[in-house]
């Protein structure tokens, strides 16, 4: 029988694989949300 | 300052220095001394990264920037989170995999020794001068606050930074960064609350925002692409990205902070935290400046916020002319306060016609007030041709000294000193590391033991600190410090970023080509600085582009002339690429 060992994630795991891609996405989404929020603040009190 | 303020100041500073020295008492090995044993948790690294960046200049002048220009300066930071992601994917894994002490070590792996040495020297020149400005900035503020000579305050601050950086190394720096940033943010929060609480009773926080909005201070994001407009969404995203890539990816004072993480994961988490928090944090600091602006709509501000220049003109033959301007300023301010009440009442009554009329009257009064300030600056220049005619750095300082409750003044003063100590000590630590690792141990004493290197690095820190204090004695010739420190960095960042971009993404280019390109790129930037009016914000892009283009051309030339054989040589040096 052939078994496939999935390697455990380590610090050398390529960055865009596994959870890091999600973390990067969150950072960029938060940036986008902050920019939109700041724009709305300026528009609301203009 | 009151006795309580002195007590708060002394206790806060003593606890910062004492805690740093206590936590770093075991920093006897080289790696522990320079990279904190690469064992720090992500939150300590993150605070250290942020505290190194948040110098006293930023801390005092950012609220003043918002006072003068509103929230739009926040756009300058929009590129930073993107840079954090890019560096987490590209540079940081490479630095950690190669277990380098400095970013420039990687350049020897990728290119050759001469490229590493050249980049190290560029960094030392740029950051050594920057350390002087970092020491000078809080010194001039302290000199105003305490009435001491600026040479004494710069020696005191420089001495304190040298003391705890040399005795504790980077671990002391990193541990005290946590405290310092905490105190800075506590002090800023206290200033924000004070500004809001000191508003008239019938003016609420939303009213304050409405006043700020009516006077154009809340216009934070501008999507209109305008090359003459320094701060808009596009310059923030593109220009901010280049500057942040260079600063966090190639400047040893920041790379060293990142490398102190216990693992790649910890380093990356620290960078992500910085990316998440930086823009909201800067927004908050700018909002404090906006609240101080609103506060001064209801309380008469000085015509010019710089107390030294004000005293100078009052002692000159122009005192009567200046006094007349002060009276005119007070009259315009009183009239503006009436219009402000009218605007708020009209807004509450939801009367659009009256609101619009009041808003126009408000804008007209604001323009009148600005014209009087311009006249006051002209009088300052007449009294003293070398007078500093930008007072944004003094706005927040004036607010702190004149309006904050007893105790908070001491805390805020401690914040200023703590911020300057954290950025100054981070710089000294990075300068010493580069000196011993990239120059001393690489060129002069390759066989030096860790003990010897540690001893030399302590002396290097002290030496760079003394150099900074020496330079600070002459820094009053530089004019606006915020501009000076940014121009200084931008003169070299473009070249450094270009070298690293070639290293990461142009694997067919060799060390000789990039070495020549770095010299050419630096010459191009210096030419733009000396011979053109191009804004310093573009130096980073110009230097980077020049290095990449010249490196590619030189490499092609080398290959065409048969100087190398198909890039085989650097194939063995790409372990990090």
How helical, in percent, are the residues of chain B? over 70%
Number of strands of chain A: 0
Shape of chain A: rod-shaped
What structural class results from the helix and strand content of chain A? mainly alpha
Order of helices and strands of chain A: H
User: Helicity level of chain A, as a percent range?
Assistant: 55-70%
Proportion in β-strands of chain A:
under 5%
Instruction: Report the principal-axis shape of chain B.
Output: globular
Average predicted confidence as pLDDT of chain B: 82
Biggest pleated-sheet summary of chain A: none
- Per DSSP E runs of 2 or more residues, the count of β-strands of chain B stands at 0
Commentary on this structure:
The complex is a heterodimer of chains A (46) and B (577). Chain A has 46 residues and is an all-alpha fold. Helix content of chain A is 57%, strand content 0%. Chain A contains 1 helix and no strands. The longest helix of chain A has 26 residues, at 19-44. Chain A starts with 18 loop residues before the first helix and ends with a helix. Residues 1-9 and 13-17 of chain A have low confidence and may be disordered. In chain B, helix 5 (79-89) runs parallel beside helix 11 (233-250) and helix 9 (150-197) packs across helix 19 (450-472). Chain B has 577 residues and is mostly helical. Chains A and B meet through helix 1 of A and helix 5, helix 6, helix 10 and helix 13 of B.
Helix-strand layout with pairing:
The complex is a heterodimer of chains A (46) and B (577).
Chain A: H1 19-44
Chain B: H1 3-23, H2 30-35, H3 42-53, H4 56-69, H5 79-89, H6 91-97, H7 103-110, H8 113-146, H9 150-197, H10 205-214, H11 233-250, H12 252-259, H13 264-298, H14 307-314, H15 319-348, H16 352-383, H17 392-403, H18 408-444, H19 450-472, H20 481-505, H21 511-531, H22 539-560, H23 568-571
Helix pairs in contact in B: 1-9, 1-18, 3-9, 3-12, 3-13, 3-18, 4-13, 4-17, 4-18, 5-11, 5-13, 7-8, 8-9, 8-18, 8-19, 8-20, 8-21, 9-13, 9-18, 9-19, 10-13, 11-12, 11-20, 12-18, 15-16, 18-19, 20-21, 20-22, 21-22
């Amino acid at each position: 029988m052939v078994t496939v060992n999935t390697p455990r994630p380590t610090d050398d795991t390529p960055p865009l694989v596994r959870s890091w891609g999600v973390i990067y996405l969150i950072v960029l989404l938060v940036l986008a949300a902050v920019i939109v929020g700041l724009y709305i603040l300026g528009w609301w009190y203009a | 300052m009151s006795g309580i303020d002195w007590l708060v100041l002394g206790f806060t500073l003593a606890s910062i220095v004492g805690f740093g020295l206590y936590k770093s008492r075991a920093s006897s090995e080289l790696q522990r001394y320079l990279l904190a044993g690469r064992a720090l948790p992500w939150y300590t690294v993150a605070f250290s990264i942020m505290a190194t960046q948040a110098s006293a200049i930023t801390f005092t002048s950012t609220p003043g920037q918002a006072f003068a220009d509103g929230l739009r300066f926040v756009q300058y930071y929009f590129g930073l989170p993107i840079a954090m992601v890019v560096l987490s994917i590209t540079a940081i894994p490479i630095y950690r995999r190669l277990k380098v002490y400095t970013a420039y070590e990687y350049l020897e792996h990728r290119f050759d020794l001469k490229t590493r040495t050249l980049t190290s020297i560029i960094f030392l020149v740029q950051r050594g001068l920057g350390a002087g400005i970092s020491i000078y900035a809080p010194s001039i503020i302290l000199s105003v606050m305490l009435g001491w000579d600026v040479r004494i305050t710069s020696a005191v601050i420089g001495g304190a930074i040298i003391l705890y950086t040399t005795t504790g190394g980077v671990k002391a720096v990193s541990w005290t960064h946590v405290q310092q940033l905490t105190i800075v943010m506590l002090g800023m929060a206290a200033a924000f609350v004070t500004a809001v609480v000191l508003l008239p009773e019938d003016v609420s926080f939303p009213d304050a925002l409405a006043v700020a909005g009516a006077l154009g201070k809340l216009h934070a994001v501008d999507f209109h692409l305008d090359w003459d407009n320094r701060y808009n969404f596009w310059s923030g995203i593109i220009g901010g990205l280049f500057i942040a890539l260079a600063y966090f990816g190639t400047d040893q004072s920041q790379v060293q902070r990142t490398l102190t993480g216990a693992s790649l994961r910890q380093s990356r988490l620290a960078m992500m935290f910085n990316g998440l928090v930086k823009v909201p944090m800067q927004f908050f600091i700018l909002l404090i400046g906006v609240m101080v602006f609103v506060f001064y709509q209801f309380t008469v501000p000085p015509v010019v916020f710089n107390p030294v220049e004000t005293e100078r003109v009052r002692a000159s033959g122009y005192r009567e002319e200046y006094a007349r301007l002060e009276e005119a300023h007070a009259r315009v301010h009183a009239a503006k306060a009436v219009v402000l009440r009218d605007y708020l009442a009209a807004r509450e009554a939801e009367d659009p016609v009256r609101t619009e009329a009041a808003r126009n009257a408000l804008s007209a009064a604001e323009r009148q007030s600005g014209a009087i300030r311009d006249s006051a600056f002209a009088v300052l220049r007449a009294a003293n041709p070398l007078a500093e005619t930008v007072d944004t750095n003094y706005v927040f300082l004036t607010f702190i000294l004149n309006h904050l409750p007893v105790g908070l003044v001491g805390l805020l003063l401690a914040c200023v000193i703590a911020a300057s100590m954290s950025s100054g000590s981070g710089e000294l630590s990075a300068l010493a590391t580069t000196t011993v690792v990239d120059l001393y141990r690489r060129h002069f004493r390759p066989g030096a033991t860790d003990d010897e290197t540690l001893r030399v690095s302590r002396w290097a820190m002290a030496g760079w600190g003394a150099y900074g204090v020496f330079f600070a004695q002459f820094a009053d010739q530089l004019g606006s410090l915020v501009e000076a420190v940014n121009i200084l960095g931008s003169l070299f960042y473009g070249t450094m970023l270009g070298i690293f971009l070639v290293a990461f993404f142009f694997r067919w280019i060799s060390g000789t080509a990039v070495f020549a390109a770095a010299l050419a790129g630096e010459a191009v930037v210096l030419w733009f600085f000396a011979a053109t009016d191009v804004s310093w914000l573009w130096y980073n892009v110009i230097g980077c582009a020049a290095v990449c283009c010249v490196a590619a051309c030189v490499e092609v030339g080398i290959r065409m002339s048969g100087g190398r054989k198909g890039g085989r040589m650097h194939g063995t040096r790409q372990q990090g690429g």
